[in-house]
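Working notes for the structural subgroup meeting. M.R. asked for a predicted model of this chain before we commit to crystallization trials. I am recording the input and output together here so anyone reviewing the notebook later can reproduce the run.

Input as submitted:
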Amino acid sequence: MGIKEQLEERRRQQEAKRYFRQNNDAFFDAKKWAMLIFSGLSISLACGFLYGLFVSITHIHFQFILALVGIAIASTLKKVAHIGNTKVAWLSVIFYVFALYMSHVFVIVISMSSMIGGGSFFALLLEPDIYRLGFQSFASNHVLTILIFVLGGYYTYEIAGK
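Returned structure, recorded in token form:
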């Protein structure tokens, strides 16, 4: 086999690989990754804010809602990706943990802004101490709450992975 045939064979293999990657949903391009990350961030922040609003209105920390947040995140990312695989599942779990953390941050921010005054909501979001308090609140949960978080993460992984 000459050099010309080897180059032609290599070109055919690269073209076949390119065609396979373009038409296979398991391989995401940069645009699809950007859409997944933007969708995950937006749904995580929205769910965290809604949970913070729920807690500030009712003064009840109902952790099962946060397990449902994981299901909402997994369903959204699966619809954006048009496929369920392990990449989407792990991305869903990461955004689920981010939503859990941001829900604690939003509970603190909404509580403090209602004590200080309504105009300080965005100013409080820019304070680094708020995020430290949110992390302390997130890290100091009870055993049952941690179990609910783990179950929510498991269901998030299962829904997005199928």
